[in-house]
Amino acid sequence: MISDPQPETLTFLFTDLESSTRLWERFPDAMTVAVERHDAILRDAVERADGRVVKVLGDGVMAVFSSAADGARAGLEAQRALQNESWGETGPLRVRMGLHVGEAQPRGGDFYGQPVNRAARIMAASHGGQVLLSALAAELAEGQLPAGAGLRDLGDHRLKDLFQPEHIFQLVHPELASDFPPLATLSRRPNNLPTQTSEFLGREAQLSASRDLLDATGVRLLTLTGPGGIGKTRLAVQGAADQIDRFEDGVYFVDLSPVRDPDAAFDAVIRAADVTRTADGRPLDVLKQQLATRHTLLLLDNLEQVMDAADGIADLLQHCRDLKVLVTSREALRVRGDHAPQEVVVRCAAERLVRWHQVWPCARLACLSVSPRAIGLPPTVLRVACEPSDHSASDGGSAGAGSAGCREQMRSRAGSPTPPQTTARWACA
Fold first, then answer.
1. Fewest beta carbons within 10 Å, which of 64, 253, 333, 411?
2. Dihedral (C-alpha) 233, 237, 239, 240: value to the nearest 10 degrees?
3. Pairing between strand 52-57 and 60-65?
4. 392 in a domain, yes or no?
5. Residue 97's closest CA among 10, 14, 181, 180?
6. Handedness of CA 172, 175, 178, 183 (dihedral sign)
């Protein structure tokens, strides 16, 4: 049996051509020639710095180096060459770049792992013409940078999908542009989104569905509904984080789990969104006035605790045309304008049940009335039945013996989650 290669500690460089979609739309013929030249410049800079281009990613590349100093040298030389090139009809091509160092798993000529993801996110925070380094890459490269090059401390930044902030540095040189807009990170816009303690993995379909709805002009109120514990809050927080760049006046998380009356709920919104509270007036009226011209996204978590606030939310949206509200709840709001995409929550429920089944193989999970769309599970109703398996056909025992074996297996798995009750049935509608 051939074992996987051992992880390697390398410097990863990601690049991306800024505004490439717009350029391709405006100059399709000229861009064909320009991108070929862009690719050749990047590849030459990487190879001159003793690096290797791992793959081309759209209008950018992923490259690896044995040292952070080599990666920084490649970034500097690539930017200088790109800046000095005569691009003709397309105008200057501006490329953003990000560097990070870490141990990644090689597989099939590619690399996988957290350092790779972090390097890509650092690049995504940059602007065309800018080279960013993680704190570790900067520390390792410092003292070995090309003549005239230096590092500018840009501080700590929260990056999309990464639960640990990153201290970011900018590579500076007299021949390169040095002044750029604020980095495109979660720290750029006002927000109070909770820092996550784990990476968001494996729910791209649900995240994409919720993102598409939040992007839609006609959707002002989006509700993720379903039973407790299926991951509604985690999905909503990630979805809100991905929307930060769209809401210039901020994205705000409001925990409504301890709240039981509408006025207290809207008071919680006032505190979370840093709204100026007037001396008198109902909390809802204050929000109508203060949020009327703000382009803001509110994430209201656990609204099932105060369903009487639903009409007030609809009223608030009528008065604040640039406001959007993302809600998690065990119950549908049933107010005008609410969108509750069942496929998003049902998928979460199905994944949780699959994990149950992996822990309790003696349980039988039956999903009824499920649309056949590639296990994306966008049904009208998902009903799940969890019952002990009948092992009589496979082991010669009776159904009762099978159930007894199942119970014994359950008792023997110390530390495992408590399985569903034998006859538990519930619906996510």
1. 411
2. 130
3. antiparallel
4. yes
5. 14
6. negative
Residue 161: closest CA among 224, 240, 223 = 240
Domain that holds residue 403: 344-428
Q: Are residues 19 and 166 in the same domain?
A: yes
- Percent composition of the chain: helix, strand, coil (DSSP 3-state, to 5): 40, 25, 40
Between CA 237 and CA 246, with CA 242 as vertex, the angle to 5 degrees is: 120
Report if residue 193 sits inside a domain.
Answer: no
Distance CA 416, CA 355 (A): 11
Strand partners, 7: none
In angstroms, the Cα distances linking 174 to 144, 177, 178, 197 are: 17, 8, 8, 40
Is 380 strand, coil or helix?
coil
In the sheet that 363-368 helps form, which strands lie side by side, from edge to edge?
363-368, 382-388, 425-428
Number of folded domains that form the chain? 3
Assess whether 268 and 156 both reside in one domain. Answer: no
The per-residue pLDDT for range 361-374, each reduced to its tens digit, is 433 333 333 333 33
- Whether the model clears a pTM of 0.70, i.e. scores above it, the answer is no
CATH code for the domain of 81: 3.30.70.1230
Collect the ranges in the chain with pLDDT lower than 70.
1-5, 160-164, 186-188, 196-202, 279, 337-338, 340-429
CATH code for the domain of 320:
3.40.50.300
**What is the residue-wise DSSP string for 292-343?**
TT--EEEEEE-GGGGGGGHHHHHHHHHH-TTEEEEEEESS----TTEE--HH
Concatenated DSSP letters of 243-287: TGGG-TT-EEEEE-TT--SHHHHHHHHHHHTTPPPPSSS-HHHHH
Query: Helices (H) and strands (E) in the chain — how many of each?
Result: 13, 16
